[in-house]
Amino acid sequence: MARLVEVATAGEIPVGGRKSTNIDDLEIAIFNVDDEQFYAVEDVCSHDSGPLGEGEIINTYEVECPRHGARFDIRTGKALCMPAFEPIEAYPVVCKDGKIYIEIDW
Ligand code: FES
Q1: For a 10 Å CB count at each end of the chain, is N or C smaller?
Q2: How many structural domains does the chain have?
Q3: Which of 27, 44, 47 to mutate to test the pocket of ligand 1 (most atoms within 8 A of CB)?
Q4: What pTM was estimated for this model as a whole?
């Protein structure tokens, strides 16, 4: 069953910014790539568990893992280059009344 979980207020994450947070045992990174467009992905690289929330954003929608340089599409979680082959989880984001929620299956 999917549920919305509040992860931040919109003001917490400026354009170009990000926030890493935990929900139960899930590590999640939320990115604000342009004017209030937020994306949320698993904060664990599928190659060797690098912290993607600390990675650089490239080409607007790609996060580069700070450990070995794999890139992922933050819209879909798709792995875009080696050394990662497996995708990461991408979570739907809902912005409502100045708060950011992600949709998680429980
Ligand atoms: S841990 Fe992310 S590329 Fe290796």
Answers
A1: N
A2: 1
A3: 47
A4: 0.95
- Match 């599409």 to its residue by tokens: 73
Domain containing 72 equals 2-105
For 38, the enclosing helix (H) or strand (E) is: strand 37-42
Pocket test for ligand 1, best of 65, 72, 82 (most atoms within 8 A of CB): 65
pLDDT 10s digits, 12-42: 999 999 999 999 899 999 999 887 799 999 9
3-state secondary structure of 88: coil
Please tell me what DSSP assigns to residue 79.
B
Please write the tens of the pLDDT for every residue from 47-100.
Answer: 999 999 999 999 999 999 999 999 999 999 999 999 999 999 999 999 999 999
